[in-house]
Design brief:
alpha/beta, single chain, hydrolase, 3 helices, D-tyrosyl-trna(Tyr) Deacylase, Chain: A, 8 strands, 38% strand
Amino acid sequence: MIGSTMKVLLQRVTTARVEVAGETVGAIDAGLLALVGVERHDDDAMVARMAERVAGYRMFSDDRGRMNRDVREHGGAVLLVSQFTLAADTRKGRRPSFSGAAAPADGERLYRALAEALRGTGLTVATGRFGADMQVTLTNDGPVTFMLEM
């Protein structure tokens, strides 16, 4: 069903940070910037599957220059940032619809659960601040960017 899938936009980065009101609230060096959109029908089982996908997604080069290493093998970290706008339905018109987005309390709970699940895979995870006006700065390495959907 369209509008009922967790989305994570992964960007391979050499550095990334998120600021709120001029204060850095999360930062990493090499690793992944993961922008997270939580939708209405997302649940804890989906969070667990997405954490395994993010942790195991092969986006880093091996010794032969092929994308065969995941972020753990690369020795990188993850900066997890909630991004409500990823839940937008943009199929019609000139204004996005957010009717498929999770309610704020559900979105925050699942976002925090995803951060904990990623930590459970052995990754170092920094986060933004859910619901805040955030400024994200990154250096995309490659550029390499993938959209993961469940």
